[in-house]
Design brief:
The chain is about 30% helix and about 25% strand. By secondary structure, it is an alpha+beta fold. The protein has one domain. It has a 6-stranded antiparallel β-sheet. It is globular.
Length: about 170
């Protein structure tokens, strides 16, 4: 007779962490949220900025950049990117005005079990008005969120890089 071992439901639930995965916006949804007046988004290559800043091609290849237009008028730039949180990727999109000032940050998806508060409007609003020249440092001009230090730091670092790439590409 074979012996079978069973784990109680409690033991199994202690071994398997709960799944957290939330998709908030698509890239197209973020484009419209960041530039509601835009009627056209044209792909933008960040290669020139990447070369000037010596950012690895592989890092920039994962980004999706667009120039936003309302009719024939340039209304801004949108760059969608992803950074690692603590364990999982966080998708986000940054909107920049034609003057390359950040006009918004949208969280596209969040997979971590903690730190989802980075999606709160008050935290994201801290980036509005910042530029590539802004320090964008967690703890000084961007508030940390307790329990989400890596998420806040990595998203902030990503936004800083996006602003610098757009500045170097479009200047």
């Amino acid at each position: 007779m074979k012996r079978r071992r069973f784990l109680s439901g409690l033991a199994v639930s202690a071994l398997v962490p709960p799944a957290f995965a939330t998709d908030y916006l698509s890239i197209e949804g973020a484009q419209k949220a960041l530039f509601p007046a835009a009627d056209r988004f044209v792909p933008l290559s960040l290669a020139r900025g990447a070369a000037a800043l010596r950012v690895p091609d592989a890092r920039v290849a994962a980004m999706h950049a667009f120039t936003a237009y309302a009719g024939d008028q340039l209304v801004g730039y949108v760059v969608a990117d992803a950074v690692i949180g603590k364990f999982e990727l966080i998708g986000y999109a940054v909107g920049l005005t034609p003057e390359r000032t950040i006009n918004g940050l949208e969280i596209l998806w969040y997979r971590e079990s903690h730190g989802y508060e980075i999606r709160q409007p008050a935290w994201r609003a801290q980036f509005t008005g910042k530029t590539a020249a802004s320090p964008l440092r967690v703890g000084s001009d961007i508030a940390n969120i307790s329990g989400a230090t890596l998420s806040t730091t990595h998203v902030t670092d990503g936004v800083r890089l996006v602003a610098q790439l757009v500045q170097a590409t479009t200047a």
